[in-house]
What we know:
Layout: H1 10-27, E1 31-37, H2 38-46, H3 49-56, E2 58-65, H4 67-70, H5 73-85, E3 89-93, E4 101-103, E5 106-107, E6 118-121, H6 125-134, E7 139-146, H7 151-163, E8 169-176, H8 179-188, E9 195-198, H9 200-206, H10 213-218, E10 221-224, H11 229-245, E11 250-252, H12 264-273, E12 274-281, E13 285-294, H13 300-303, H14 319-324, H15 355-361
Parallel strand pairs: 1-2, 1-9, 3-6, 3-7, 7-8, 9-10, 10-11
Antiparallel strand pairs: 4-5, 8-13, 12-13
Helix pairs in contact: 1-11, 2-15, 6-7, 7-12
Amino acid sequence: MIDITPLRREKGVRALLNQIKEEVSTLDRKINIMEVCGTHTMTAYRSGLGWALRKMGINLISGPGCPVCVTPDSIISSAVFLVKRYSSVILASFGDMLKVPASDGVPLMKLVPAENSEIRIIYSTEEVLKLAMENPQKEVVFLAAGFETTIPSIAWLLKRAKEKKIKNISILPAMKLVPPPLKAILESGEIKLDGFIYPGHVSVIIGSEPYRFIPEKYGIAGAIAGFEPADLLFGILSVLRQIKLGKPDVDIVYKRAVKPEGNPVAKDLMREVFHVEDAEWRGFGVIPESGLFPEKGFSAFERFELKPEAVWESKGCRCGDVVKGVAQPEDCPLFKKVCTPDSPRGACMVSIEGACLIHFKYGEEVSFEGD
């Protein structure tokens, strides 16, 4: 087992901060780096590094790496319609997904379902399979939100259901691919980016090649980083050095987990079970070839006549702008005023990977400055 304790030690982290400070001083301008993954956002602000880096002239911008946050209202409203209108249905999903404000601001998990229907929080796709086997008289619908990190497990679920001839499983597909929204962000020109910190967990599956178009076409530096404080700083240091040398790349600094080719077995499984289509994202609208969808017969949209109702939406919520990086949580007029973890008005305040929740919990009072 790899000992990651050194990646958390203050002495090493301070040394890296000092190296970053030196590199920034040679660039003589502020640097905008998007940390794509919400777990990187958590690392940055829980440790205080986000604020320390900002004082050095590095502006960390949260990206679209929170699957709950980017799931569009059309999927949420379909889930609401399904569980309120159809009897003998079990709607299952991971906890954060079911906490998103839905009908009249009530989260999905607190909706009153139709007769003999229920809503379940699950912790693995294996539980979905078990639910279906234990409840053959009910249709088990999995609200399947996730990126390439969790999509292989969803693929396993559907493949296993097919092998076992379990007929009462379907999914509400909200599975997204990470590279396409990065292209959408760069093409929009709404924000100027100098670099990316690419998600470590996703990259374990897809490797480094899917990001290659970013340095080659757009000349933007990038690094795949892990999730300890030092991991994040190694990634930022790599980006700064690429900028300084004028040689943008996709540098893997998370070598203990990520290989350039990714995980071939997981990628093959995804290709076997799903196909790529255009998909809708919160904040972005439809992004070409950015979603994965199941083979015929496994989509809840085929099994049920879903007529999504209008989803309750808090006026002024800027979650869609936050996931695109065009706004910080503090730019939202609802942030910390009426939108809090106890009373969230948008998905970005719900998920543990949501930028609004992270900024709410770890404000500027947390500091970690280099010597």
